[in-house]
Write a structure and sequence with these properties.
Radius of gyration: 22 Å
Strand content: 15-25%
Distance between the termini: 51 Å
Number of strands: 19
Number of helices: 17
Oligomer: single chain
Structural class: alpha/beta
Shape: globular
Length: about 425
C-alpha cells in the first residue's frame, strides 16, 4: 500500500493504534491519532479529523458500529481494521488463530512447533507484539502467527490469512456485538477472503463453527476430539493426523477441551510441512502460557491452579474437565452477562465445591443453588477466597483448587494478567510451594 501524501486517521491510542500510526509514518503517510479520550487524541476536532483524511485505521477497542466509523464509511473513506492494515504490509506467511477460547495457547503452541522445526516464526496480535509493530519487518521466509480476536476481525473486509484456524464459538462479548449472530459473523471474517489455495483449520465438533462451512473456499482441514476426520483427531489414546499416530495423549500437558487446541496446532504444523516426528518432539517441550490452568503452588497438601485467563463459562468448564481429582473452584469477577446456569449444569462431577468473589458473586451463588449446587460460599476478595477454597478442599477431600473465574477481570483489575498475579501473590502469602 502506497501511503505517500496520504493522511491516515488511527482511531484508538492503545498499543495497536500507536503501532499502526508508526507504520503509517514509516511508509510515507501522515498519521493522526484520534481517541475518544481527549487527553490521548492528537486532534481536538472530531469532525475535521475524519473529514480531512484518506484512510481510517480502527483499533480493536473501537466497535465497527461506532458513529464515527460509520460516518467515515458513508463519506467514502477507506476504513480498515488494525489487523488487516498491518497485513497489507506483511510479506510473511500469515496464520490467524481465532475462537472464543484457547486462542493464546494455540497461537503459542503453533509458534513453538514452528520454531522447534527451525521455521522463523513470530507470535503477534493479542499475544506478543502488536501486528503493526512487526508486519513490515518480516520477509517472505518467515511466519506471523496471529492471535485474532472478534474485536480485530469485526470490521475486517480484506484480511485473508494463508492459514485460518477456528477453535470454537460460544457466547462471549455479546455486550459489544449485540447478539450471537453478529459475534459469529465477526469470527467468520477469518475465512471469508481466503482463496482455494489457502487452508482453513476448524473444529468439526462445534455446531457454530460447522455452520460456517458453506462460506469456506479454502482447503478444509477439520479436527475433532470425538471422532476420526480427514485431519487431526484422537484415537486409542493417541493424537493422530490422517491415519498416522503423532503422540500419546497421556504424555502431553493437555486434557479435556484443551485437546482441541492441541489438535488445531498439530493440523497447522503438518500443513506447514513439519514432520510428525518433529511435531511430537515439540509437543513434549511445550510449556503452557501464563495464567492458563497453570499450577502455582501447593498449600497444606492441596494443589493450586491459576486459570485467571478463564473469562467465560466455556473456558472454566474446559479447565474443570482437565483437572485430575476432586476440585474446588474459585469463581467471580466483573458482571458481563455470563450464563452461570450453563456453567453449573456443565461442570464435571469432580468439582465438589466453589468459592466466589467479585462483582457478580451473588449472581453466581443464585445460579448455583438454582441448579442444585450447594457447596458454595462467598469471600470478600481473592486472597480470602484462596484461603477459604483450601479450607473447603480439605473439608470435601479434594486434591485441587482451581482459580478459574469464568468472568472478566474489570471489577477490580485492569486485565486477567493483573488478576492472575494477584492470585499468585495470595498463594505465596499462604505459604504455597511450587
Amino acid at each position: 500500500m502506497n501511503l505517500t501524501g496520504k493522511t491516515v486517521v488511527v482511531y484508538g491510542a492503545g498499543i495497536s493504534g500507536i503501532s499502526a500510526a508508526q507504520l503509517v509514518r514509516d511508509h510515507g503517510g501522515r498519521a493522526v491519532i484520534y481517541d475518544d479520550n481527549p487527553t490521548k487524541s492528537h486532534s481536538t476536532s472530531c469532525t475535521s479529523v475524519f473529514n480531512d483524511c484518506d484512510i481510517v485505521v480502527v483499533s480493536p477497542g473501537v466497535p465497527s458500529g461506532n458513529e464515527h466509523v460509520l460516518d467515515a464509511r458513508l463519506g467514502g473513506k477507506q476504513v480498515l481494521s488494525e489487523l488487516e492494515f498491518a497485513s497489507l504490509f506483511c510479506r510473511a506467511e500469515q496464520i490467524a488463530v481465532t475462537g472464543t477460547n484457547g486462542k493464546t495457547t494455540t497461537t503459542l503452541l503453533i509458534d513453538h512447533i514452528l520454531k522447534y522445526a527451525r521455521i522463523p516464526s513470530h507470535a503477534v496480535g493479542n499475544v506478543g507484539a502488536a501486528f503493526s509493530s512487526i508486519a513490515d519487518k518480516l520477509d517472505a521466509m518467515e511466519v506471523a502467527v496471529i492471535e485474532a480476536s472478534s474485536f480485530q476481525l469485526e470490521g475486517a473486509r480484506y484480511f485473508a490469512p494463508d492459514i485460518a484456524v477456528m477453535l470454537n464459538i460460544t457466547p462471549d462479548h455479546l455486550d459489544r456485538h449485540g447478539n450471537m449472530a453478529r459475534y459469529i459473523g465477526a469470527k467468520a471474517n477469518v475465512f471469508l477472503r481466503q482463496s482455494e489455495s489457502d487452508v482453513a483449520v476448524y473444529n468439526a465438533d462445534d455446531a457454530n463453527v460447522l455452520s460456517l462451512e458453506p462460506v469456506i473456499r479454502a482447503r478444509k482441514v477439520p479436527f475433532s476430539i470425538s471422532h476420526p476426520v480427514d485431519g487431526a483427531y484422537l484415537s486409542s489414546g493417541f493424537v493422530c493426523y490422517r491415519g498416522m499416530p503423532v503422540a500419546e495423549v497421556c504424555d502431553l500437558d493437555f486434557a479435556g477441551r484443551e485437546l482441541e487446541d492441541l489438535l488445531a496446532a498439530v493440523a497447522v504444523a503438518v500443513e506447514k510441512g513439519v514432520s510428525l516426528y518433529t511435531v511430537a518432539s515439540a509437543l513434549h517441550t511445550f510449556r503452557r502460557p501464563e495464567f492458563r490452568r497453570k499450577e502455582c503452588g501447593t498449600v497444606d497438601g492441596v494443589k493450586i491452579f491459576n486459570d485467571s485467563k478463564a473469562t467465560n463459562v466455556f473456558s472454566t468448564v474446559s479447565a474443570a474437565e482437565s483437572m485430575d481429582g476432586g476440585t474446588v473452584l474459585i469463581l467471580g469477577g466483573a458482571d458481563r452477562g455470563e450464563n452461570f446456569a450453563e456453567l453449573f449444569s456443565s461442570l464435571p462431577d469432580s468439582v465438589k465445591g466453589a468459592v466466589v468473589t467479585g462483582e457478580n458473586a451473588q449472581k453466581i451463588i443464585s445460579s448455583a443453588r438454582e441448579n442444585g449446587f450447594r457447596r458454595i460460599t462467598e469471600s470478600p476478595d481473592i486472597a480470602d477466597a484462596c484461603a477459604d477454597a483450601v479450607e473447603l478442599a480439605h473439608e470435601l477431600g479434594c486434591a485441587n483448587v482451581l482459580f478459574s473465574p469464568s468472568s472478566k477481570s474489570y471489577d477490580n483489575y485492569t486485565s486477567f494478567v493483573e488478576r492472575g498475579r494477584a492470585f499468585d501473590a495470595a498463594v505465596a502469602r499462604l505459604g504455597g510451594k511450587k
